From TrEMBL:
GO terms for molecular function: hydrolase activity. This is CocE/NonD family hydrolase. Residues 313-550 form the Xaa-Pro dipeptidyl-peptidase C-terminal domain. The lineage of its organism: Bacteria, Bacillati, Actinomycetota, Actinomycetes, Streptosporangiales. Keywords: Hydrolase. The keyword DNA-binding does not apply. It comes from the Bacteria. Pfam families: Peptidase_S15, PepX_C.
Length: 556
């Protein structure tokens, strides 16, 4: 347990303990309409059988949430942890992010018959546990008073699994292997079994990520075929499968109080912000109280902070006990030279307008549009792909130094002059990069960095897009002379709230990929094969091809 009730410093972020004695009932059976059952564990204060309820639905085993459940129950709430279909001893088949549409209704029908259910509840959870809350909005639930959704999007295809059309291989191959390992353990896996599920990625991860064809990478990592992974590979394009995992439209039926939280270095952040926009739109958005909190966190780690916990319990106290109304609006951590929280009325900050910073020859970056000039060459070899360094990933992410990438033939670096005064970027970030590619198939990865006086290129945000004839990530952008196909790559990058300090420089890296975070582009148009082709690209930055990153800049 990262922290407990005993530390005085953490108590400042938590309400006082109401009931130190907690009772636990394990293995409660919830019948499913088509047959089978879901299993659940119930935690409740020994002196209050009908305390307000906090519901958590998880695929990670019921015991995985035990410490959180006890923490909440000691504050005077019941907690019900329900294992989703095919996990934790529940019936059915686990299909990753494709949830059984009948589960939420079955849980609520069962709850309404329990003598210990007081008729008021909130939902709580991070990552997959947050995603299950988006699914619950398929139908209106009168007893649902508040949703605490951390690091979880309502949609999976474009926001993280195939961001920019590129499979996020490193994170999700490792995740499906861990889930497969937990499933093979049977029943409700212990915490020790959960820890053991991490071992294959440590022992065989590098070999699995490098293996071709990618359809066999699951066998290399886990020793067997993983159906969920194979299903994702068989549906590389948007379609009905992914539509069934998109719960964005459910936003209008979420409860009247929603607390969203995310981290700048979390892979789900773009999806969290899309969910925030959906919650704020329409008539239901005007009637709903929505709080958005974005901190300097990697995936899941906001949960272990006083900032998050104090806000989360304020939501519970108000929604389920009639306490003081919690804060609304937006609170974001401004990184870099600021290192402080900022309160906003909405996201993105409405007063910010995109400022283009143009790429120039010689690795220069500036506000002046380029004129006639030669392009910057880039050579991408999928047999030696550009390595990924830090960033918003599930494992090992964060604001890492990208200097190790400098000097590679597949990396082009651009930096502006030393700043005479600090500037802040707060809002959406994007890039438009014109490239002339020898091959028809290529990827463009763009990373924004804070270049300090010591020469470190510290990650701020990034994004990737896959380019192909008739593809969604770019379009034909005229002629550049010579052989090759000219694409205009439109890269949706992660949002940012970052202060570039005086004396620092704004830096941009352009590469042909970031492996193993993203699946490498083989250059052949056949990502299911083993053949690879080295690609020569030219980054165009002239009057006809004004490549640039767009930042929501203001003078600090």
């Amino acid at each position: 347990m990262p922290w407990s009730d005993r530390g005085a410093g953490w108590k400042a972020g938590l309400p006082p303990v109401r009931c130190p004695r907690i009772l636990v009932r394990r293995g409660l059976a919830i019948p499913l309409p088509g047959g089978g059952r879901l299993l659940a564990d119930r935690y409740h204060p020994a002196d209050d059988e009908r305390a307000p309820l906090v519901l958590m639905r998880t695929p990670y085993g019921r015991r995985s949430g035990a410490w959180t459940a006890r923490l909440i129950a000691k504050r005077g709430y019941q907690v019900l942890i329900v294992a989703t279909a095919g996990t934790g001893g529940s019936s059915g088949r686990f299909r990753g992010w494709l949830l059984d549409p009948g589960e939420p209704g079955a849980v609520m029908d069962w709850l309404r018959t329990r003598p210990w259910f007081c008729g008021a509840m909130a939902t709580w959870g991070a990552s997959f546990l947050g995603y299950t809350q988006w699914q619950m909005g398929a139908e209106a639930i009168g007893e649902w008073r508040a949703a605490l959704i951390q690091d979880a999007p309502p949609e999976v295809y474009s926001t993280f699994l195939y961001r920019g059309g590129v499979l996020a291989l490193g994170d999700w191959l490792r995740w499906v292997q861990q889930m497969s390992s937990l499933g093979r353990a049977g029943g409700d896996p212990s915490l020790l079994r959960g820890a053991a599920a991490l071992l294959p990625a440590l022992l065989r991860g590098r070999r699995a990520y490098a293996h071709l064809p990618v359809s066999e990478a699951d066998r290399v990592l886990a020793g067997h075929r993983i159906d969920v992974f194979q299903e994702w590979l068989a549906h590389r394009r948007p379609g009905a499968l992914w539509q069934a995992m998109d719960h964005t439209a459910n936003a209008e039926r979420l409860p009247p109080l929603v607390h969203l939280a995310g981290g700048w270095y979390d892979p789900f952040l773009p999806g969290v912000l899309e969910g925030y926009a959906a919650l704020r739109s329409g008539e239901s958005g005007a009637r709903r109280s929505v709080r958005l909190l974005i901190g300097p966190w990697t995936h899941g780690w906001g949960l272990f902070t006083r900032t998050y916990m104090s806000e989360a319990f304020a939501v519970l106290e108000h929604a389920l006990r009639g306490g003081r109304a919690p804060a609304e609006g937006v609170r974001v951590w401004v990184g870099g030279g600021a290192g402080r929280w900022r309160d906003l009325d909405a996201w993105p900050p409405p007063e910010r307008t995109p400022t283009p910073l143009f790429l120039h020859p010689g690795g220069r970056l500036g506000r002046r549009r380029p004129g006639a000039c030669a392009p910057t060459p880039l050579r991408y070899d999928p047999a030696d792909p550009t390595p990924s360094v830090g960033g918003p990933v599930l494992f090992g992410g964060g604001a890492k130094d990208s200097r190790t990438l400098l000097g590679r033939a597949d990396v082009a670096a651009f930096a502006g002059p030393e700043l005479e005064e600090a500037v802040e970027a707060a809002g959406p970030v994007s890039a438009q990069v014109d490239v002339c590619s020898e091959l028809e198939h290529c990827d463009v990865f763009v990373r924004l960095c804070d270049v300090d006086p010591q020469g470190r290129w510290v990650h701020v945000c990034d994004g990737i897009v896959r380019l192909e004839p008739g593809g969604r990530g770019g379009e034909e952008a005229g002629s550049a002379g010579g052989a090759g196909r000219v694409y205009r790559a439109r890269v949706r990058m992660w949002p940012a709230a970052h202060l570039f300090a005086r004396g620092h420089r704004v830096g941009v890296l352009v590469t042909g990929g970031a492996h193993p975070r993203y699946e490498r582009n083989l250059g052949t148009g056949d990502q299911s094969g083993t053949a690879m082709r080295t690609n020569d690209l030219r980054i165009l930055h002239d009057g006809a091809h004004p490549s640039a990153v767009e930042l929501p800049l203001s003078t600090a």
